[in-house]
Design goal:
about 270 residues; 5-stranded antiparallel sheet; 7 helices
Length: about 270
Amino acid sequence: MTLRIRISIFVFFAVMLLTVGILFGEVDRIGLLEDRIESLTLENQVAAWEGTVDTAASALSDKAAALVSTRELATAVRDHNNDLLQVLLAGTAQDVGRIDLLDGDGNLVYSTDQDINTTPLIDAGLVFKLMADNSAGAGLEADQRGDIMVTMARPLSVNQDQVGVLVIANRLSSVAAQLKTATGSDTILLDAKGKPILSNVDPKLLPVLMAKLGKPRTGITLVPTGDKVYRLGQTVISSASGNRIGYEVAVSDVTQSYEHDRGRQFLAYLVMIA
């Protein structure tokens, strides 16, 4: 074997090794980029969710303020006068999902939810905090059925003495529609056990997506189905006290971008093999 042939073989393998190294680096770079995109997607999803929930809670603020300004309301809570409370809440109760009135110890004095198993929407710890800070608090809470509600809570006082807390709440049916407008994504809301409690996804598509979703977690799942690919972005929903009460799943049709990305990766692998 001549020196020229040996040099040619050496150069050939050197170029091949360099090419393979570059392509491996490209594949790794694509993987890191996908991880970053997933992280940013979830961050944007959380921001959109929180903004929409804040808007929904703000819509309850005026109603809560009007009720708190009713002098007889705080007195009726202090005296556990349920008959008077029912009369005072009658008008507002028709416009919202639920109203709770709790005493200073966090006990439920009255609720417009007349279910025999009704429990307070907020816990005693949050009641104590709102009264101590003399401030309003908005957030999400789960009722005794596991349904998630957006809430606005305000302390009640009689002659500057704190006597309890008013909680006014709405169900999240409007939030899914607002998210669709803001982000273009459909929404599935799951309770803490992963059971769907609200969805604006096509009813025929929902069971297909749920079958692929698996155990509730934070992250992104890609679901190919027929000629479509859907991205399911799943994030945790926490109550004002920090308890996990459910999950929000944003559903997006990513068929075009998925096919483009897979095409790039496939081309990189083919070149590497060649």
